[in-house]
Amino acid sequence: METIFFEDAGIKVTNSRFMTHGQTYALGGITSVSRLVEKPKRLIPVLIFFAGLATFGVSNSVFLPLIFIAIAVFIWISQKPKYVVMIRNASGDSRTLVDPNLTRVNKVIAALNDAIVHRG
């Protein structure tokens, strides 16, 4: 009988399997679990910001440059890091889950570690 360590929205960790969004990994083959952080790419908001600064010298109005700058700030603030569950097995490292929710990713990692310990 399988013991369930975690189950939520397409993700399930049992004592024998790790299933995530249609992909299944045998727990017996997993040697380690880790978390990575993918920081958002900031090039677009930076370019928009500098375009806004450049329009200060060209535009007769302050309104257009402020719109560019406001859009850049909005994009910058709305970009959030993504957290990745990495597993290592005999065939190498696999990015098994990418999620913006750090708490959920930490729960999955804890469940995977508990399941690995449970297997012995």
From TrEMBL:
<dbReference type="InterPro" id="IPR045629">
    <property type="entry name" value="DUF6232"/>
</dbReference>
<dbReference type="Pfam" id="PF19744">
    <property type="entry name" value="DUF6232"/>
</dbReference>
<keyword id="KW-0812">Transmembrane</keyword>
<keyword id="KW-0472">Membrane</keyword>
<protein>
    <recommendedName>
        <fullName>QacE</fullName>
    </recommendedName>
</protein>
<feature type="transmembrane region" description="Helical">
    <location>
        <begin position="44"/>
        <end position="77"/>
    </location>
</feature>
<keyword id="KW-1133">Transmembrane helix</keyword>
